[in-house]
Amino acid sequence: MRHASGMFILLLSLGLLASARAEQASAPEEGFTPVFNGRDLSGWHGDQTVWSVEEGITVGRTQEERPEGTFLIFDRPIDNFILRFDCRISAEGNSGLQFRSIELPDGAPWQLSGYQADIDGAAFYFGALYRFEEYRRGFISARGEFNAILPGGGINTVENFADGDEIKAAIKIGEWNSYEVIAIGPYIETRVNGVAAARAVDLDAEHPRGETLGFQCHAGTPMEVKIRNARIKEL
Predict the structure, then answer these.
(1) What's the pLDDT tens digit per position in 130-174?
(2) 10 Å Cβ neighbour count for 37?
(3) Integer CA distances (angstroms), 187 to 13, 45, 86, 146, 234, in order
(4) Of 170, 47, 61, which Cα lies nearest the Cα of 111?
(5) Is the separation of the CB atoms in 147 and 164 below 8 Å?
(6) Beta strands 145-149 and 195-202: pairing type?
(7) 40 contacts: CB under 8 Å, gap ≥ 6
(8) Which end of the chain is least crowded, N or C, by CB within 10 Å?
(9) Domains and CATH numbers, the chain
(10) Cβ–Cβ < 8 Å for 227, 61
(11) Cα gap 199→158, rounded to integer Å
């Protein structure tokens, strides 16, 4: 049974991967629309002492040590999509794109629970897939990993498709990087500067999945993250 289950996961994942690649290959920018207007934060909500627009670029900046992180949250629900953007983050910065998430109704405002595509200034985790949730946090797939989230929440490796250090070499620390997040059905992939970074397939149907996305400024050390040219294609 374990062998059959593993083969099912692999076949399903490969089919979804082929679908994602087909979406990328056909007219790369056709059907994409901007998610920021370049003037203000219309269409988004968050802490405006942290988030702003400067010369057309969306900026998240914290000035002091913070006990909790905060998110700039998109007002419109999004489920299946390809999102592309450029990002630049300070050396001590810790950020990410939160997606298929739920906005938490209680406690501190502008908090999200769900999946995250990681962005950090030291490139320890840049490009990895993470679960940033109120009660369960941890990596889904590190760079170079293709993992399956099993029913009940366990993680199983489908494939180690690339060397994590080679992917890291494609990241321009301290500079602008292009980032892409693909979410089609249960399949998720991140790409950094055109290089596949992490893949996952979520087979845990019982786990709640939202339709909210947002950008993060992490708790802790003062930091800055900049986002430009963000555009999305809904699928």
Answers:
(1) 987 655 568 899 999 999 999 888 899 999 999 999 999 999 999
(2) 13
(3) 7, 28, 22, 10, 15
(4) 47
(5) no
(6) parallel
(7) 53
(8) N
(9) 2-234 (2.60.120.560)
(10) no
(11) 9
